[in-house]
Write a structure and sequence with these properties.
With about 220 residues, the protein is an alpha/beta fold. The protein is about 50% helix and about 10% strand. β3, α4 and β4 form a beta-alpha-beta unit. The protein is elongated and about 55 Å long. The two termini are about 25 Å apart.
């Protein structure tokens, strides 16, 4: 029965529509226009601290492109083959050979009319990568992605819970924000674990159940 219950939980995937923009509304708008072809931009670089939503945006962009029948590839810390849209996450993780590959991919995407989306922890000028690659990444649109504040994280948690069909009481959200890890991916992962725990026990979400989940994570 537990497996049956878990099997009907809707799968949550990063999408442009479930990205809580907060102070990143301009970035989200620019990305939408670039993907639709209305802006003419073929390159976009986003940077910000870990857990700020860079991976969400890049994966969401790839999903949006695939949804309309075009080719798109997402890769993290490596350089994939060319496609109409290529998203490369965590550029600072690329070794020397991969940096050369990304430089060549950048030029190839421009020549073929493809789009390249890249993310990193720092602005292009401060990236510890090859000079020619650093220059290329600064040529297109460059946006800093700002982490969400607590109010925006609350909105993101409620939105995530709704997508999973989980009724999330306010006191559970408050406790999670006060005592959980601060980055949004960790908060969402804890929420997922709480949902599965509630399904196994056939009980509604509550602070005591959340405490059980959080203790299990730290043990």
């Amino acid at each position: 029965m537990n497996q049956l219950l878990l099997g009907i939980v809707p799968e949550w995937t990063p999408a442009l529509d479930n990205f809580v923009a907060g102070r990143n509304a301009e970035l989200l708008s620019a990305l939408r226009h670039a993907l639709s072809g209305t802006s003419g931009e073929r390159g976009l670089y986003v940077w910000g601290e870990a857990g700020s939503g860079k991976s969400h945006l890049l994966q969401a962009a790839v999903g949006a492109v695939r949804a309309v029948g075009q080719s798109a590839i997402y890769a993290c810390g490596e350089v994939p083959e060319a496609a109409q849209v290529v998203a490369v996450d965590d550029v600072e993780r690329l070794d020397d050979a991969a940096q050369i590959q990304l430089f060549e991919l950048y030029n190839s995407q421009r020549e073929t009319g493809g789009m390249l989306l890249v993310s990193g922890l720092a602005a292009p000028a401060h990236l510890k990568v090859r000079d020619d690659l650093r220059t290329r990444l600064g040529w297109g649109l460059v946006y800093q992605i700002h982490a969400l504040d607590d109010e925006e994280k609350t909105q993101a948690l409620k939105q995530h819970a709704l997508a999973r069909g989980l009724e999330l009481p306010g006191e559970v959200t408050t406790y999670l924000l006060r005592h959980g890890r601060r980055d949004l991916p960790s908060l969402l992962a804890t929420l997922d674990a709480l949902d599965e725990h509630c399904l196994r026990l056939k009980r509604a979400a509550s602070v005591p159940l959340l405490k059980e989940v959080m203790r299990a994570v730290t043990e």
